[in-house]
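Hi all, long-time lurker, first post. I run a small reading group and we've been trying to get comfortable going from sequence to structure in the token notation. Rather than ask abstract questions, I figured I'd post a concrete chain and ask someone more experienced to write out its structure so we can walk through it together at our next meeting. Sequence below, copied exactly:
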Amino acid sequence: MRPAARPRRLAVVIAALAAALSACRPGAPPGGEDAPPPTPAAEVRIDAEQADAALAILEMLRSGTTPADADWERLFASEGYRRLKQREESMKRSFEDAAFADFLRSGRTLAAAPALAAILAQWKQADTTAAARRALAYLPAGTRIRATIYPVIKPQTNSFVFETASDPAIFMYLDPNVPRPKLENTLAHELHHIGYAAACGAQAPEGMPEGVATAMGWAGAFGEGLAMLAAAGGPDIHPHAVSAPGERARWDADVAGVPADLARVETFFLDVIEGKLEEGAIRETAMGFFGVQGPWYTVGWSMSTAIEQIYGRDRLIEVMCDSRLLIATYNAAAMESTSNGRPRPLWSDRLMERLGP
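-- Answer (accepted) --
Happy to help. Here is the structure in token form:
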């Protein structure tokens, strides 16, 4: 999830987490038996109406039946479709009903229909309760997560979060190559982003120099690495334990490059703090650290795991909302530990001085 992005009507409800995440509630609530129940820690549901409606049309087309106007209206009126269209238009991208209909009629989409139907059936059984619990385990006490998950059939193969501040949504491209365990890992990752935004928000201390504030604003992207840790379930679990072998191998290779990548990110921070980069160059450089799973992920994960391993999860959660404190705490942890028997890379004294107290 990019910093710029941070970033329904029930068709299918997979999880209402109120009971599950507020399970142990001894005795009657304050105010007597008629008092309202406490707000659940997480409210997550899956709305698959867009995918269901698209698959119904695909089945008709494959059987030689012409979909009726009502079939197309069901698709275009679905909440997932409407919000997807809203998101694309907000990014100045064309999203026309006629073009989407042509996409469904294409031979490639028609051929994929059986596989799409099979994976959607799996996804509808996703354990969103467990995914939310993994996210909440790495968030400050009292954090609440509210989100609608939309599995969607669409031309673009990306997945993303949308409207995290008002009506949080997770759009998941319906991919036959993503089995349910991988989906649940991804959902935990994205739910952590939503919880992180709710818990941390914009927390620039008053009086912070503009350059430092800008650099540390982008440092919030280390939340990608923290979300990798949360989705895995702990520092001793491989972040790609449920991924395909190729994804795991790529991650391992990228993590091996953390020392060099930390140095690259530090150069970026210093250039921003010292006013060496214009706004456009700042954004271009920072966005380049995302990649498939670039330094915001790998360096962020390495920092987060080091802090948890040395000081415990509570300390990691305590510092996660303050990028300066996160960096300083990592440096302290790095000096007390190694990674695969090798010294961990450190943020330089020069950067620490620039960041200030």
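A couple of things your group might point at:
Confidence is low (pLDDT under 50) at residues 1-33.
The beta strands are 42-46, 145-152, 160-162, 169-173, 338-339, 342-343.
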